[in-house]
Amino acid sequence: SGIPQIKTSLRGVIMKEFLTYKVLIAKWLGITATIGSGMPLGKEGPLIHMSSIIVTKMGKALSTFNSIFINESKKIEMLGAAWAVGVACTFNAPIGVRNYWRGFFAAVWGATTYRLLLVWIDGVDTITVVFPTSFFVNFPYDPFELISFAILGLICGFGGSFYVWCKTHFNRWANGTKWLKKIKEFNRFIYPGFIVLLISTVTWPPGIGQFMAAQIAPGVQVQELFSNFTWTKENLTVAQNEVVSHWSTQWSGIYTSLVVFMCYQFIFSILASSMPIPNGSFIPVFRAGAAIGRIGGELMHLWFPLGVRYKGKITQIMPGAYATVGAAAFAGAVTHTMSVCVILFEMTSQITHVIPVLIAVLISNGIARLLTPSIYDLVIQTKKLPYLPDLLPSTSAIYEVYVEDFMVKDVKCVYLGMTYARLKELLITNKSLKVFPLVDHPQNMTLLGSIPREELIWLIDKKIGALRRRQVLPSPIVDNGNDKDDKQKGEPLTRKEDIPAIDDSSDSEKEEKAKKEEKKGVKREELFARWRVGKKQAGESSKAPKSPMPERKSASQTLGVKQMAWEEEQMRHEVDFTTVHIDPAPFQLVERTSLLKVHSIFSMLAINFAYVTSIGRLVGVVTINELRKAIEDANSGNPPKKPLRPPPSPLPILAQTPILVRAQSLDPGHQA
Predict the structure, then answer these.
(1) What is the pLDDT of residues 369-378, one digit of tens each?
(2) Basic and acidic residues: which segments have biased composition (predicted)?
C-alpha cells in the first residue's frame, strides 16, 4: 500500500528507502497492472505513495524548494500535501483530506488536473462526479430512519473489526506456515499465480461470477448499488430492469447476489492484498459496505413498502441511500478515519444524507477503535515500523504515568577506566545496541555522553587489529618453496620492515609516512561493514557467539603463544575514549516526565531513544518500543504499574545527652 510508511514519515521518522525512484517506477507499473487485472484491490495507497515520492524528489531537484527540505517540519508538511494530492486524484475529493489547510491548495489542483485529463484523454463529456446519485432533496429520509441508520453503523462497526481480525490471523498463518514459505522462496511467482487463477475462476461470468455481477466493471457495480430505486418493486423501466438483471439470475434473486458479492469483496480482498504487488484496501471495503447497506435498504423497503409516515407525511425508503451510508460506515471502521464522510459527499455530489452518514460513521468508528487497530496500523505493527499511536485525550493516564514507570532500568553502558576485555564482552553480549552511554563510574553513573557502536569497535581493532599486529609482532612462518635451508630449519622468514634500519628523515616526513601506512591498512568503513549488527558472513555458525575481531586461524597455526599473550596483555589496558567521537549532549528526560510529554518529544524530534537521568545520574533508558507499549496500555485502560517507592527515611534524632564544651580564647588568662 505505502500508506503505513508515509504515515510513519508524517510522524517525523522519514523512511528514505521508500521514497526512491526505483519504488516510484515499481508502484507506477504495478498499480497499472493491478487495476487492469480486475483484482478486488484499490489504488488509493499507491497513488498517495507516488505523490509523496514525486514531492520528495522534486524538492531535492529544484533549488526553489531547498529551504523547505532543510527544515524537517516543512518536509513533513510537504508530505502531507502529497498525501492530499493522492486522495484527490483517487476520489476527486479535494476537501476530504486529513489536514485541511496544509493540503487544500495541492488537493484542489490535483483533483482538477485529474478530472480534466479524463475529459481530454478519455473523451468524457464534462467533469462529473465519480458515483452520480439522484436522491430526493425535499424529504430524503424520515427522522425515524435515523434509528435504522444507527443500527447499520453498528453492524458495519462489528463487520469492519471482524475484517481486520480475519486479515490479522490470515497474515499470521501465512507468515508462520513453513510449506508456504518454502513455495515463496522457491519461486516468487507461484503464490501470486495461484491467487490470480483462483480469483479469475471465481469471477468468471458464466460460472460463479454471475452471482456477483461480475459481467460489469467495478465502478459500474458501485453506481448500481447507489441507484435510487427499489430492485424488488414491480413495473420497472427498461433501464431499471437492466440494472436488476446484473444482480439476479434464473436461479437466484438480488439478495443472493448481494450476499455473494459482499463475501467475495470481504474474503478475496484479503487474499489479493497478500500478494507482493501495489494495492489499496479502501475501495474493496467500500464496495463491501455498499453491499451491506443495499441489503439493509432493500429489507427496509420490504418491511415498509409504502414508506414511513411521520406527522401526516409519507417518506419513501431509498435503498441507495442505505448503500452510501453502509459504504462510508464500513470503510471508516476498517481505516479508523472520519474523512471518509466528506470523501463520500464529494464522490456522490450530494449532502442530503449528511446526518445519517455522520451518525453511522461515528458509531462504526467508535466500535472498531475499541476492538481492533486500523488496517494501516495493523501493517505498522506487523512490520514493526517506528510509529507511535495517538494518545486518547480522554485518558487520564497520560498525565499520571511517568517515564520512570516504563523505562528500562538495566542500562548497558561504558565507563571511564574500563578495560578492552570488558568492552569486547559488552559488545558481544549486546549486539542489538547501536549506541552506548558513557558514564564516569559504574557506581556513580554520571552521564557524560554517548558513543556509537562503530566507534567502540574501531577502538578494539585499533588496539589489537591486523594493522597493529603487523607493527608490533613478527611475521608468521612463510613457505615460498625457494629456500630449502630455511624450510628445513623451520625458522620464520623476516620481512624488510622487521629489520631495524636507520631513519634519518625529519618529523614531517615521518608523519607523512605514518599517514601512508594507515591508508594501506584496513579502512574504517570496511571495518564497520564487518562489524555491522545483524549481518552474518556466509557459513558463519549461529550457535556460538563470534568474536567481534577479524577472523583468523587457530592460535596454534598462525598466531602462536607469543601473539596470544600479547593480545591478553593489551586487552587488560584501560580504554582511551579521547580518540573517538562522543556525543556530549544525548537526549535526556527526567524521571517525572509525563507520558504526554514523552510522546510529544519523540514525535516532534523523531528520536528513537532517550536516556533518563536524575540530577545528572543515569537511571534508565526509554526506547520507542517501550513508549509504544505504554501508550497502548494507557489507551486500553491498563497503564503501566508504578514501581513501589521505598518510604522516606526519618531524620536522625539528636541524643539529648548534655555535652560539655570548653572554649579557650586568644587570651590565655580567659577561659570558659
Answers:
(1) 888 888 888 8
(2) 481-499, 507-521
